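lol ok so funny story. i was supposed to be doing the assay writeup but got distracted and ended up predicting the structure for this chain instead. priorities right. anyway since i did it might as well share w the group, maybe its usefull for someone
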Amino acid sequence: MLKYSSQNIANANRVVYIYVIVIVVLKWSPYLNLLMKTYFSLCFIILVSSLSSCTKEKNKTDQQVLLPLKVGNQWQYETVIYNEDGSIDNSYSYTMLISNDTVINGETYFYDGSTYYRNADVNTVISGTNAIDFHVTFKRTTVDRTIIERWTAIIDNCKAINNLIAYTQITNVNGHESLRNESEMTNCYRVLSKRVTYLAPGLGNTKQLLYVPNSTNGSLYLRGKSDLKSYKLN
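and the output, tada:
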């Protein structure tokens, strides 16, 4: 009687296993080919869906209204007022609270106790203090340094011009990705004031800077700034 070692038996079993696998692959190769095609097709579909989802999310962010306006929304700011030499003149905190809404000329405005606000569209905020004269307060644009609005007035028998300029650059301000608008008023070719506003779409103003001429040579200095400290949106 022939005797086989355990090693010989193990080797023989490996040969049988390999033979069976080869037979199965040869017999089912058309189906395996179809299975692989299906697998890669599914992977491609998942990849395209993921990219589409990312694009939709980006577009959703781009289309957020600039200023979320609902009764009860509030923003708390810390304000610092500076002297011409840079020293602090005063500092205080204040809260902007949307207390109520009202309809003016068929449009709904939101009131914070001193100013009426409305999102004219997803890219434009307008406001006014007397419920009659409204101007663009902030604008999102795709063209850098765009003059959004220009209005004129007579001040001290001289023509005053105010330009609102929108920028496309996004800046991290107080932890929020913010856009920038600048409002500059000139009178007889002298700059009377310059206001820089940073706004995070879907959240609101994150920072404001006010520059005015000094009493020595008329060059601008930082008169005041307001920084967003907290907020509550409904």
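The CA atoms of residues 16 and 22 lie 10 Å apart. Residues 1-13, 15-26, 31-61 have pLDDT under 50 and may be disordered.
back to the writeup now i swear
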